[in-house]
UniProtKB/TrEMBL annotation:
Record flagged with keyword Transmembrane helix: yes
HAMAP family for this protein: CobD_CbiB
Transmembrane segments: 63-82, 87-107, 161-183, 302-323
Name of this chain's protein: Cobalamin biosynthesis protein CobD
Coiled-coil positions: none
Family, per entry: Belongs to the CobD/CbiB family.
Keyword Transferase: no
Pathway: Cofactor biosynthesis; adenosylcobalamin biosynthesis
Main location: membrane
Role summary: Converts cobyric acid to cobinamide by the addition of aminopropanol on the F carboxylic group.
Length: 326
């Protein structure tokens, strides 16, 4: 049964989420001592110890548990202890966890310099900057290739670094956001179909797929709402199944259709040209489309926050009408 506590809880959650996003937009990533950097080193240590050749599924599961459970358990314990001391301390802790986990401003800070370099005609700088955010070879890429890579990265990482984090924050607060972000980081580090990680990284990839299933579809739906709805829905339905990733496919196909761009296609990985399935419809990407993609990701974040706040206000209003009067 709905209660005033439910309305208060949802309102507080929406405000904490808004505060975390605002803090990220204001400060961006910490230049030193970022917790995810420390986590990455910890993960590398675990992988070196457990991923003995040939790797195994069992070792991959054990490594995932050793990497994720301790920090998440500590975050949960801190949440409980702070809540016993003060609601304000607990609220600040949730906001801080979300700030460390979300990467909205980081997407802008990495992508927009690529657009600026392309507009200045500095292809060498654009290639170097793009190579920092994608795994493909950019050494011979031209403007269209680099713009396409940057747009694809923004669309996909909008889900991985922003909306998946917000979804799990809504479900389980700061510890939920931390769980998702660590799981997503492990997938990025271990989820490769290479001889070294094919078996060892399987657990990391499958767990990330499971945690991302709902957020990815909400992200794809949001892109469609904020862009060309008909094209986005058509591309999502027809193109996403061709992608090996069950979550990246819907997100990028919908985003490409919403923007009216032709993405996907050929890309160079480890010296080999890989023909990827097509994404979207329309013209090839150019430098200006990087800003368009960033704007859509940013507006999607605002849409999610608005929906959360509006839902909390509506619930409070409905409960006030249903409350007994003296």
């Amino acid at each position: 049964m709905l209660s005033a506590f439910n309305a208060f809880d949802l309102t507080l959650l929406a405000l904490l989420m808004t505060a975390g996003v605002a803090l990220d937009r204001l400060l961006g990533e910490t230049p030193r001592w970022h917790p995810l950097v420390g986590f990455g080193r910890y993960v590398q240590f675990i992988e070196r110890r457990l991923n003995r050749q040939p790797g195994s599924h069992a070792r991959g599961v054990c490594a995932w548990l050793l990497a994720v459970l301790p920090p998440v358990a500590l975050a949960c314990a801190a949440t409980i202890l702070l809540a016993r001391q003060s609601l304000w301390l607990a609220a600040a802790w949730h906001v801080l966890l979300l700030y460390f986990c979300i990467g909205l401003r980081s997407l802008r800070d990495h992508a927009m310099p690529i657009a600026a370099a392309l507009k200045d005609g500095d292809l060498a700088a654009a290639r170097a900057l793009t190579g920092r955010i994608v795994s493909r070879d950019t050494s011979q890429s031209q403007e269209t290739d680099l713009a396409k890579a940057a747009v694809e990265s923004l669309l996909e990482n909008g889900n991985d670094a922003v909306f998946g984090t917000l979804f799990w924050f809504a479900v389980a607060g700061g510890p939920g956001a931390l769980l998702f972000r660590l799981a997503n980081t492990l997938d990025a580090m271990w989820g490769y179909r290479t001889p070294r990680f094919l078996a060892f990284g399987c657990a990391a990839a499958r767990i990330d797929d499971a945690l991302n299933w709902i957020p990815a579809r909400l992200t794809a739906l949001s892109y469609a709402v904020l862009g060309n709805w008909r094209q986005a829905r058509t591309c999502w339905r027809e193109q996403a199944p061709a992608w090996s990733s069950p979550n990246a496919g819907p997100v990028m196909a919908s985003g490409a259709g919403a923007l009216g761009l032709a993405l996907g296609g050929a890309a160079v990985y480890d010296g080999e040209v890989e023909q990827r399935p097509p994404l979207g419809v329309g013209r090839d990407a150019v430098a200006g489309d990087i800003a368009r993609a960033w704007t859509m990701v940013s507006r999607t974040a605002m849409l999610w926050l608005t929906v959360m706040l509006a839902t909390a206000m509506l619930l409070s209003t409905l409960l006030s009408f249903g409350a007994p009067h003296a």
